[in-house]
Amino acid sequence: MKTALTKEMEKALYYYCLELGAMVVEEVALPKEAGIVDTLACFSRQGQREWRCYELKISKNDFYSSAKLSFVGHYNYFVLTAELYEKVKADIPTEIGVLVYRPYGEHDELLPAAGTFLIEKRPQKQSLQLEEAEILERFNATLFREVRKAKQMAYGPSFFSTEQLYKELKRRSELKDGLSEEHYYDRFIDDITEQKIASLEEELHALQQDYQFLKTKTAFKRRPTEPLE
Questions:
Q1: CA distance to 17, 58, 109, 210, 215, per residue, from 206 (Å)
Q2: Is 218 exposed, middle or buried (0-12, 13-18, 19+ CB in 10 A)?
């Protein structure tokens, strides 16, 4: 589970890359067992793509873990707290850069993030560790994933199938204490029942109006003219 600090740094890194003019995505699964890049940014330099990979670490255990480092870009960075950087800087490879997180003293609500980054160590340019077409494909796939999430939020329940909605309602119902909390499935059924009753009442009222109209029309129906005696 991500800590509050991890989420704060991820958000700050996202906006940091945006401010530098990059297209940026998070948690990019790479091919050929190359792992998952925490943040992958694509910059345009004189008509050429430049790829930068960022691996975010907040503890020594995290830094020294066996998790694969997905440094496949032209430039690659560790993203660390100032405290962690002092503890691990001797073990950072020469070619890998370091961004150190600097939280703002008082977070201005008008700012998109709670902090920014300082370059403590500049990276050396490297050749891509994968074919660029492979990186671009995974980059685009991740962009699509994020667009799909945004569409789900924008469209709401209409984006999901009835079966998916039913499963989610059932899951939430099972998580709740029936004696103390509202069951959304029961509420949903009650709402649907009320809507059906209201719809039937409206239909009945319309039929009654039609009946009264036809009854009145029949009462005043013109008869054929009677012949003279």
A1: 61, 67, 54, 6, 14
A2: exposed
Tell me the torsion sign for CA atoms 184, 185, 186, 190.
positive
Angstrom distance (rounded) from CA 158 to CA 117: 40
Q: Residue 39: enclosing H or E segment and its boundaries?
A: strand 36-45
Q: pLDDT 10s per residue in the chain (229 long)?
A: 788 999 999 999 999 999 999 999 999 999 878 899 999 999 998 889 999 999 999 999 999 998 889 999 999 999 999 999 999 999 999 999 999 999 987 766 677 888 999 999 999 999 999 999 999 999 999 999 999 888 888 877 776 777 877 777 777 766 665 544 556 666 767 777 888 888 888 888 888 887 777 766 555 555 565 565 4
Show the CA angle centred on residue 139, arms to residues 134 and 144, nearest 5°.
125
- CB-side neighbour CA atoms (13 Å) of 13: 30
Closest listed residue to residue 11, CA positions, set 42, 56, 60: 56
Q: Which helix (H) or strand (E) holds 211?
A: helix 184-219
Question: Token pair of 114, please?
Answer: 């709670």
What distance in Å separates the CA atoms of residue 162 and residue 94, rounded to the nearest whole number? Answer: 54
Helices 162-175 and 184-219, packing angle to 10 deg: 130
| Class of residue 43 by CB neighbours under 10 A (exposed 0-12, middle 13-18, buried 19+) | middle
Interatomic CA distance for residues 90 and 104, integer angstroms: 27
Q: Report the distance separating Cα 141 and Cα 28, nearest Å.
A: 9
